[in-house]
Amino acid sequence: MGEKIDLKKTTVADVGVCEAVSDKEIEEILIKYDRESAYRRIPGVFSVIVSIIAIAFSLFQLYTAAFGVFPAQMQRAIHLGFGVALTYLLYPATRKGAHKLAWYDVVLAVLGILVMSYPVWNFHSLLIRAGAYTKLDIIIGAMGILIVLEATRRVVGIPILIVVSVALGYCYFGQYIPGFFQHRGASLQRLVSHMFYTTEGIFGIPLGVSSVYIFLFILFGAFLEKTGIGQFFIDISNSIAGHAAGGPAKVAIITSAFEGTVSGSSVANTVGSGSFTIPMMKRLGYRPEFAGAVEAAASTGGQIMPPIMGAAAFLMAEFVGVPYLEIVKSAAIPALLYFAGVFIVVHLEAKKTGLKGLERDELPRFWSIMRERGQLFLPLVIIVYLLVTGSTPMKAALWGLVVAVVASFLSPATRMKRGDIISALEQGARNSLGVVIACAAAGMIVGTVTLTGLGLKLANGLIELAHGRLLPTLMFTMLTSLVLGMGAPTTANYVITSTIAAPALLKLGVPAIAAHMFAFYFGIVADLTPPVALAAMAGAGIAKANPLKTAVESTKLAIAAFLVPYFFVYSPSLLLLGNASWLYTIRVVAGALLGMLGLGAGMEAWLITNTRGVERLLLLIGGLSLIHPSVTTDIVGIVCVGGVYLMQKTRMRQKSAGMTGAV
Q1: Most confident option among 62-71, 250-259, 446-455, 559-568
Q2: Which residues pair with 610 in a beta bridge?
Q3: pTM of the entire predicted model
Q4: What does DSSP assign to residue 610?
Q5: pLDDT higher for 533 or 565?
Q6: 114-118 CB contacts, 8 Å cutoff, 24+ apart
């Protein structure tokens, strides 16, 4: 436990063993808190069949990316057919079936393929009938809805299943619901046809985005993983910040920011990099709860980090109706502010408790890493370049994937073998299942909104509750998004919050990107906030800490996530919207950073030394004042935070002079 670890030669597994976090424990934590990791581990012929289907799924997506996609409903139906088949073969109905494949799962997998094939084989006849659906059509459609619901329960979880089921019930029983939520209701035939045979339900925009863009970026991430990019990110982060005060905690933040560019699961990120960084933080002297919270807060931030943003960026582009690059551009400054906020609090905690960094001779050298593995940045550079120059996300992901394979051959340390490529094709398909099924389920939520006008009803209700004022509406939208986001994966999370919570902000004149981003941020923060707090629970599992205390710590650390959305609603220039000058944008960013410093220092009771009661109050007031980017509030914020800094500086100088005089 006290022996030195050579980070230049170590692996994540080595650190895990050193700190008594075994690979088996890590796997158990993933299975417990990440539904997508709770799949069957079955050997033999069925394992081979699953591999073949998964590889075929990836090859189909690559083929359509290279040579053109099929008509929307055909493309989406084939995509979902692969998804439900793999889901039923890989994910058991109950925990007891984790080590064997039940006969009914095989039946459901085959049935899933047949049902999702129905709109493909009957594409032209369904088009010609134009809404005149037969009894067989309705039976097949109803089966399709049930198959998606059960697949959702298995791979995504109960919370979203409940939301979708309530939405479907609302469609059918609308005429019996009292108050302004009442609507005329939808017959079973209308409900089934709307949800299964149009592009407003299961085969709607979310699944369309998954079938064209998201899958390719997930596959791209699987290929990068085979090149060892996770360890590369950790080593780079250690070389940059490992020696600083509280080094491993800052390494966790930088690593998670890097990982966020290619990954979108807060729980998987927490467990992946946390199995390395959390033991290192504990070794340095961090409390277990704080160590787990740092990794959870940083890894959750990965979902708001461009370009992938937990796959929500692609959906947001479609929902808002702007190019994908606009979403990436708008998300950049808020994401950096989020990570800066976590970094500030970690730094203050390190200074407050006197935690130092690691010795430099323990750490890898930056230029040595770049010479050996620096080419792993090339695929990310290519993707950004192609997006900036006007290529579609699909083409950018495809070329990024090709460059990832080619770049791996530039160094023996990263070279991919044929088996690695085949494994990446299989792993990419497996990793996509949660997103595919979540998008299909979320499509039914969107379908409910279009069928019943629910979004407008909720928007009117929230605005009426807030008496038409923006700040209370923002607060109600925040609470709604936090509740709706509990336990839901990123893509489903965004679809739910954007269709139910964001319309209220749009009605009050908030720019579309700002409204959608606001709802999305608070849906994501649900992974940190009690009572669900899946990322925090996973971090607590690795740190062997109290889960609830870890969740509370992670919420404090992620104070930036609670502030940044308010910053960009009141000042859309943070999203690079409008015609604001760069000088104004820099001023707003500087004010936001100072505000987060004030709030972080107030919460930690430390700026450059221990804060007194009045100082702490001034820091909190100053931090909150800087949320609204007006000249008056900025002056109040600067005076409060700057005043406390000068008071503490004077106190330290007097204390130092007193000690010198005593000597």
Answers
A1: 62-71
A2: 606
A3: 0.82
A4: B
A5: 565
A6: 115/140, 115/143, 115/144, 115/147, 116/77, 116/78, 116/80, 116/81, 116/84, 116/144, 117/77, 117/78, 117/81, 118/77, 118/144
